[in-house]
Amino acid sequence: MKRLWVVLSAMLLGTSALAWNPRYPLPHIPCAFFPPDNVWTADISSLPVDPRSDDYVASIGAGTGLHPDFGTRRIGIPYAVADSAQTPVTIQFTAYGEESDPGPYPVPRTAPVERGSDRHVLVVQAGSCGLYELFGAHRRHRGALWLAASGAFWDLGANDLRTADWTSADAAGLPILPGLVRHEEATGVTGITHALRFTAPRTRSAYVWPARHEASSDADPALPPMGVRFRLKVSIDLSGVSPTNQAILTALKTYGMFLADNGSAWFISGAPDPAWNDDDLHQLGAIHGSDFEAVDESGLMVDPNSGQVQ
After folding, report:
1. Which of 49, 51, 170, 229 has its CA 20 to 30 A from that of 19?
2. Three-point CA angle 129, 124, 198, nearest 5°
3. Whole-structure pTM over 0.90, yes or no?
4. Given pLDDT bands bounded at 50, 70 and 90, which one contains residue 192?
5. What angle do CA 41, 96, 228 make, to 5 degrees?
6. Domain ranges across the chain
7. CA-CA distance, 54 to 38, in Å (whole number)?
């Protein structure tokens, strides 16, 4: 009966009117992540290895295991889907307003906020397929106003990048939601067909395409720049892993993962879902940093100010 009431309430009030309940899956995203020729969906399995790959891996941790920073309950980065009639609300920026897209944003009053210090809020608006992301977000006046350190907008139907040297809700100036592991994809027929997002403890004071922003004062060339892309080596045997983990690792072989923020070593981001098997996900720790290699994807670039690939 309680589940029925949740469904009926959503029908009457619109999905954006209800607070997120981690006992239920997050909503289906009704939009594709960017055009088919976007860098996020580019197959990088045959790209050349970056000349500094070994240095980058060593700096992050060659012997450190891959860590799924997502799972059941509230583990991971949640998101909201706003309907086309969602009323935009004022966003008051508290830190990086000069590098943020001005509001208002169609953020539902009850949009979920990521646990922890980053406090990301991610919203896709149905119909327009606009993606709105906030960093350091705090709800005020029951969601009629939001405070945020920074914010960014993406048209999911376009290949646009951020203004050069601008941050986003992520340190690298990249979108967050397209890089999350979602249960719906990991267990679906087509699998995960895009790059993922991960963090590293130390990064260089530089960024590479398609990133737009650096977040370090260290110029050591042995450190990876923001936006560098890693892939799982083709030699890694996936025959002994579960179907769900196989889908994640296959995506890492084909599409790889972008270094998007400073954080714990080899932490890949995902959305929470009650259907995840946390014990199974932790088996990903058998994959180590030495199993990855950085790639040089500069040959995919059509224009440094576009995410389109050739």
Report:
1. 170
2. 115
3. yes
4. very high
5. 30
6. 38-76+176-310, 78-174
7. 27
